[in-house]
Write a structure and sequence with these properties.
Helix content is about 5%, strand content about 40%. The chain is mostly beta strands and about 140 residues long. Keywords: Hydrolase.
Amino acid sequence: MSPGDSDGSFSDGDGISIGVDKGINMAWIQFEHIQDVDVRIMRRDGQAFGEEAISLPTVNTFGTQHVAGALVIHVPADPKGHRFSVEFADDLNTHRLNGNGYTTDGSGEVVGIEPQNTLLIFATTFLPDGWFPFRMA
C-alpha cells in the first residue's frame, strides 16, 4: 500500500503496489528426501548466475557451486528438514519513499531492499504412513 492510500483504498488487488510495478516475484518448491541431495537452479533466460548467491536464513551453510551456468546447492539430509530461500545480491531492488509515494529515481529515504526474484525451498523428510490426510472416495 502506498502512503497516499492511507484511507484504506488502493488500486492493486493485494495493496502492495510497488511489487506489481517492478515485477517482483516469488516461487517455491517442496520435496521430500532422506539422503543428501543437490538442488540445481537455472535461470529461465539462460544467463549464468553471479557468484553472489544468498541463502537465508544465514545459519544455513550449504555447499554451493556453479556448474555450466547453474547454481548447485548441496542440501544435507536432516530429520527436521530445511526451509530456506535463495536470492542473489545482483538481483536486488531498493525501495525509496519520498513522502508522497514510492520512487525509483534515487531520491527519498530507503524503506526496504528485496530481491527481484526469490525461490523458497522446503526440503522435508518423508511423512510417516499414519500422517497422510484422509481421502474421501
